[in-house]
Structures are given as structure tokens and as C-alpha cells.
Specification:
single chain, 209 residues, alpha/beta, five-stranded mixed β-sheet, 23% strand
Length: 209
């Protein structure tokens, strides 16, 4: 009987320790820059999970993240890509979501006055999550190139310091609605980081850079 192995996923859809490769594979397959490794005991796996992935790979085996190039073959085509654009900071802001495989627009909101790009990225992610839930697609990945927006979604809070001006009341109503949606719904869709350095601009980019 083969010896039990324990699989540590540092970066994947749901980081943690898995007791079968099949379970671990579901967390890392198609996930850009996934980091994982097998261990012979649960104690070793638990220790590793608390530490850095880079402490468990040889320097000759891998390069640090800043030097990595992620192949385009890692992109999950059956997914949604979101992005935002803002003219000024604050300024007129809009956001959209497209089908990653062909760039077909799925939704577009704005422009909204006195917004920021980070708020747009946050609203775009929540909009995509709500849309996919309504469509019965709880497992379709969503790509975003904003770590800040991904962090806000994870915490369920748009942590902006933007002040109300009267002109952006509609924007703040959208933020509050998005936060209520996050509080009332479990996120099942993987939110993946779009690797701009390796893949170029995200398909939902407005092309104004």
C-alpha cells in the first residue's frame, strides 16, 4: 500500500493541506504561478504551510516570482476578465467584463463621476461574481490585474478613502450594494491574477494607457 502523502498548496484557488493529489490538483491546475509540494507527514506539511514556499525548493529548481514568465497556455480561456479605467484620480470611472476567450463584452458600467480605478476594479469583480452566480456558473474563473481589488473582495469591504462629493452618490450606492452582496453570498468562483508582465494587457483593458 503506497505511503500517505500530504500536499501543501501555498498559492492556488484554496491554499491549505490536501491528502490526495486529485484534491490538490483541483486547486492548482490552470492557476497562474501556483505553488505546491508534497510531504511525507502531516507535521511536515503543517510546518511548511506556515513558512515560505521558497524555503522548500532548490534555487536551481525555480526562480523567484519577479523573474518568472508564465506561459500563455496557463490562461483559462473559459473565464471572465474584468478591468476599469479612470480619467483622473478621482475622475470619470467606468468598468467592464469580457469573455476571456474572444473578448466579447459581457457588461459595462459608467462613466461615473468622481471615482477611482481601484473602486472600478472592485465593482467589476463583484459584478462578475453576481453575474456568474445568476447564470449558474459557480466555478468559472474571473481574471483581474488588481491585487488591491482582489484583497477588498476577499475582505468583503471596499477600503477606499474617497470622499463623497455629491456628484458620486451613485458610485457610493454601487459600493454599498456590492458590499451587501459579498456579505450575503459565498464566493465560489476562483479569482485569478492576470499576469500582465507575461501575457500583456488583460482582455478587458480599455486601451487608454
Amino acid at each position: 500500500m503506497p505511503k500517505q502523502k500530504f500536499y501543501v498548496v501555498w498559492e492556488g484557488r484554496t491554499p491549505g493541506i490536501y491528502t490526495t493529489w486529485e484534491a490538490a490538483k483541483r486547486q492548482v491546475e490552470g492557476y497562474a504561478q501556483a505553488k505546491y509540494k508534497s510531504f511525507e507527514s502531516r507535521a511536515a506539511a503543517e510546518k511548511a504551510l506556515k513558512e515560505s514556499y521558497w524555503a522548500y525548493v532548490k534555487k536551481s529548481d525555480s526562480k523567484p516570482p519577479s523573474a518568472e514568465k508564465v506561459p500563455r497556455s496557463a490562461i483559462v480561456k473559459e473565464s471572465v476578465a474584468v478591468d476599469a479605467a479612470c480619467s483622473g484620480n478621482p475622475g470619470d470611472m467606468e468598468y467592464q467584463g469580457v469573455y476571456t476567450a474572444d473578448g466579447k463584452r459581457l457588461f459595462h458600467v459608467g462613466p461615473l463621476e468622481d471615482g477611482t480605478n481601484n473602486i472600478g476594479e472592485f465593482l467589476a469583480l463583484v459584478h462578475a461574481l453576481a453575474m456568474l452566480k445568476q447564470q449558474g456558473k459557480p466555478s468559472m474563473p474571473i481574471y483581474s490585474d488588481s491585487k488591491i481589488a482582489q484583497g477588498w473582495v476577499k475582505k468583503g469591504k471596499c477600503n477606499t478613502k474617497l470622499e463623497r462629493t455629491g456628484r458620486n452618490d451613485t458610485l457610493f450606492e454601487l459600493i454599498e450594494r456590492a458590499e451587501r452582496w459579498l456579505a450575503a453570498n459565498n464566493i465560489t468562483n476562483p479569482i485569478l491574477k492576470w499576469e500582465t508582465e507575461s501575457w500583456g494587457e488583460i482582455p478587458a483593458d480599455f486601451g487608454r494607457k
